[in-house]
Amino acid sequence: MTLAERLRAALDAGAAGTPELLTGDLHALELEGAPPATEAAVLVAITDRAEPGVILTRRTETLRAHAGQVAFPGGRIDPEDADAVAAALREAREEIGLPSDAVTIVGTVSPYRTGTGYRVTPVIATVPPDLPLTPSEAEVAAVFEAPLAYVLDPANHRAETAMWKERERHYTRIDWQGETIWGATAAMLVNLSKQLKW
């Protein structure tokens, strides 16, 4: 069985359990009368190796939004994108030079609503290990791989609290070899840990 097939089976098994997922700031934004969310997608690229990893980026410090944060490759769904999968593949090409023909799509999972007004659809996929990736200098400061088992392990998910827009917000933090994964990226990994019976 290929890694993609194992992941599809794990997603099917997770869906059967109807897990309770983190929904992000959807409820708070609805109460505040926020405008409809902007549709976006990220590529959760899992490396096909004995111990699979997930490819993550650290954004440059010069970006207007989320500077220096760890993220999946991804962004808004543009009008020319056929769907979330097409957007995630395009963004991965632009951000880290990941060739689309090297990607095997596994499927999509439940969207996550961010406090900045995006409804993000994670696109799960597999990629060959050790691909030569070229980060976009304007957007990506670094590309790294964290073990899938580590980032999905609830023992590594730390609950944190902070004040944002005069309101107490709760978020998850995952630390890996000097990198801090938090906010929407960590929340999507928490959700994936519930959706994926790995």
Strand and helix map with partners:
Blueprint: H1 3-16, H2 26-31, E1 38-47, E2 53-59, E3 70-71, E4 74-76, H3 84-96, E5 104-108, E6 112-113, E7 118-127, E8 140-147, H4 148-152, E9 158-164, E10 167-176, E11 179-182, H5 183-195
Parallel strand pairs: 1-7
Antiparallel strand pairs: 1-4, 2-3, 2-8, 5-7, 6-7, 9-10, 10-11
Keywords: Hydrolase, Magnesium, Manganese, Metal-binding
Domain Nudix hydrolase: 37-167
Organism: Sphingomonas floccifaciens
Structure commentary:
This protein is 26% helix and 34% strand. It is an alpha+beta fold. It has one domain (3-195): Nucleoside Triphosphate Pyrophosphohydrolase (Alpha-Beta Complex), CATH 3.90.79.10. The strands form three sheets. Strands 1, 4, 5, 6 and 7 form a five-stranded mixed sheet that branches. Strands 3-2-8 form a three-stranded antiparallel sheet. Strand 6 (112-113) and strand 7 form a beta hairpin.
Low-confidence stretches: none
CATH class, named Alpha Beta
The CATH level-2 architecture is identified as: Alpha-Beta Complex
Number of strands: 11
**Overall residue-averaged pLDDT value:** 87
Number of helices: 5
First-to-last CA distance: 14 Å
State the share of residues found in helices, binned by percent: 25-40%
Principal-axes geometry comes out as: globular
CATH fold label: Nucleoside Triphosphate Pyrophosphohydrolase
Task: Please state the CA-atom Rg, rounded to the nearest Å.
Answer: 16 Å
Q: Count the domains.
A: 1
SS-based class = alpha+beta
Could you state the order of secondary-structure elements as H and E?
HHEEEEHEEEEHEEEH
Taken as a percent bin, the fraction of beta residues is 25-35%
The CATH superfamily title: Nucleoside Triphosphate Pyrophosphohydrolase
